[in-house]
Amino acid sequence: MAIIITDECINCGACEPECPNTAIYEGADDWRYADGTDLDGDVVLPNGKQVNANETQEPVSDEIYYIVPDKCTECKGFHDEPQCAAVCPVDCCIPDDDHVESEEELLAKQAFMHKE
């Protein structure tokens, strides 16, 4: 399952540089699938969605830092625990019940984004 940043976020930014997938963005910032990944051009995501990895996407939140669920792997393949949750001073990085994925699915997503 992906991690979500709740509205308790104080916009300190501690989480953003810790994400190995560049899945965390400041509120109101646009994002791209290509940011911090090996994705480029037209791709089919593991969930079947077709996208151009280089195209700018709308912000998930306009007010607080946010995590892109399609890019979040809970740090699987990189760390033993989600790094955003480990550094958050107000504990607002929590599991996202709307995006439940198995460890196998998270590792497959990580491998897809970071061709080894």
Low-confidence spans: pLDDT under 50, at least 5 residues?
none
Question: Briefly, what CATH class?
Answer: Alpha Beta
Overall morphology: globular
Q: Hey, roughly how much beta strand do the residues contain?
A: 5-15%
Mind telling me which CATH architecture this is? 2-Layer Sandwich
Protein name: 4Fe-4S dicluster domain-containing protein
Organism: Aequorivita xiaoshiensis
InterPro entries: 4Fe4S_Fe-S-bd, 4Fe4S_Fe_S_CS
Keywords: Iron, Iron-sulfur, Metal-binding
Note down, in words, how this protein is organized.
The protein has 116 residues and is of the alpha+beta class. The protein has two helices and six strands. A two-stranded antiparallel ribbon has the order 1-6. A two-stranded antiparallel ribbon has the order 2-5. A hairpin with a 5-residue loop joins β3 and β4. It is globular. This is 4Fe-4S dicluster domain-containing protein. One of its GO terms (molecular function) is iron-sulfur cluster binding. Keywords: Iron, Iron-sulfur, Metal-binding.
